[in-house]
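INTERNAL AUDIT FORM
Audit reference: QA-55
Scope: verify that the stored structure record matches its stored sequence.
Auditor: D.O.
Record contents follow.
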Amino acid sequence: MVVERVASSLAALMAAGWCTAFAVPASAQAIVVAPTAPPPPQVETVPPPPASVDVWHPGHWAWTGANWAWMPGQYVASPAPQATWIPGHWEQQETGGYIWVDGHWSG
């Protein structure tokens, strides 16, 4: 959730011209651990895409540190015509709890 907020804030700053580039190594991403499984996904009505290269990223549950919050789906521009979006998901750990595995592009 924190990583998503930071990314959203940086995107807004870039759009406003306040910064031009920002990179975070994958190893620097925050690890989110939830004590319980997320609720079932909410049903989303997927609107028509705004452009032919946009891909729907489905919504998901995010752990806030105290409870679950729904993060609605959104369209995102594909980095390449053949790219496929692999959605993020919560993965149960043997030691207990659930860890968020970020979505990523494949192809």
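Auditor finding: record pair retrieved intact. Confidence is low (pLDDT under 50) at residues 1-27.
Action required: none
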